[in-house]
Amino acid sequence: MTAAPKAARRRLALPAFLACVLLAAACFWLAARQAWAQSLVADLSSHLVAITTGFIGTDVVLFGAVDGAGDVAVVVQGPEAEVTVRQKERIVGIWVNNEDITFDRVPAYYGLATSRPLEADVPPAVLQRHEIGLDHLRLVPRGSASAERVAEFRAALIRNKQRQGLYSTEAEEVSFLGQRLFRTRIHFPANVPTGTYTASVYLIRDGDVVSAQTTPLLVSKVGFSASVFEFAKRDSIWYALLGIALAVSAGWLAGAIFRKS
Description:
By secondary structure, the protein is an alpha+beta fold. It has helices spanning about 5-40, 125-130, 145-165, 225-235, 235-260; strands spanning about 40-45, 50, 60-65, 70-90, 95-115, 140, 170-175, 175, 180-190, 195-205, 210-220. The chain has a single domain (about 35-225), classed as Macroglobulin (MG2) domain (Immunoglobulin-like, Sandwich), CATH 2.60.40.1930.
């Protein structure tokens, strides 16, 4: 009669013991995750890049602190869209499109800043995982083109973006103020596309990312230029007709002034 209750108690105690173990493991994981996240703190001087009439570009300061020695890398990207790269060929004196490759989810803007060159000490797999550097930016092609052709078109895409001032030609400097504080500047050119961007900051030690933080950033048209932009998108036909009317009126007015003079 006594053996059955003892066996029942053992069966009841086992799930309770497992629950305690799982709870302790979850608490340990949460504590470790919080400590991992708090080893790096970063923010932006502004989370909005306002494009107004006469916008000529601007700089945003990224600043932060780390809990000890390490290298810092900053990657700024956004917004994503598909991009088609075309190769032109001259036939009978006329340039025509010969071949093209479309890449999915291409960031319209890519900026990079590092505290020092990382290629020598950080494995390529780590750089690729976090897209640190243009050589490690994930650009996924459509179709079944050969690896050699994809590499050629990929390089052409990056060159075009760099020519437009939208991709970094070289990494900016992340400067340390003492042992913990750091800062860098992110430049947005006059032709920066509107949309949502991300500024990802990585703390690197012994060739691996030990902490990371991502901060959102919005590039948006404001004021009169925003109203014109929204009107052009919402009522494109009326916008075109208004543009034609203004051009005709300006031409007529200029002609009248010259006739009087």
